Amino acid sequence: MDTKSLLIEKSTALFQAKGYKNVGLNEILKVCNVTKGALYHHFPNGKEELLITCLHDLNEAITTDIEAIFSRHPTTQEAILAMIDKLIGNFEKNGTIIGYTFSSIVSEMATMSEPVRIACSALYENIQELYYEKLITEGYSNESASAIAMLLTASIEGAIMLCLTQKSATPLKTIATLLPIILKVNK
Fold first, then answer.
1. Which of 18, 38, 147, 156 is deepest in the core (most CB within 10 A)?
2. Is residue 36 part of a domain?
3. Domain hosting residue 77, numbered range
4. What is the pLDDT of residues 60-98, one digit of tens each?
């Protein structure tokens, strides 16, 4: 793996696990076993530029994963349930949810850095768009699909954060239980 890819991969994991402010530059350098010069060669504007690149990379990974899940399931309900099952399995196996959550970054950086806020916003917008498109293919109106997509995004992201803070998969399981009701009411 090249140095830039290594920095992005390891830093993404650190930022997701600890948040942006709790990850120091020296920790990144140590985990990646690179020099400060190597980091600044790839990210001349430093840690914030690295974070934004991590968010773009995370956006692509999440989008690709959701698209793959959605392509295997004909209905939104089946697709979302499969995605939630994957998240629950990840949590139960690892005690955390890696790859999908970036709320800690949003909460600590969105008001401090416009470029980071924009990168986080793009992530949420892409997720919502995937949900929206799946709902539209099932015959939901534009208005309903848009509202449900936002509800799903907020509910799943919130459930992930609750799982992490409660050390329990119950919040995601609850969302999975309520999903059929939400989808029926709004069609």
1. 156
2. no
3. 54-185
4. 888 999 999 999 999 999 999 999 999 999 889 888 776
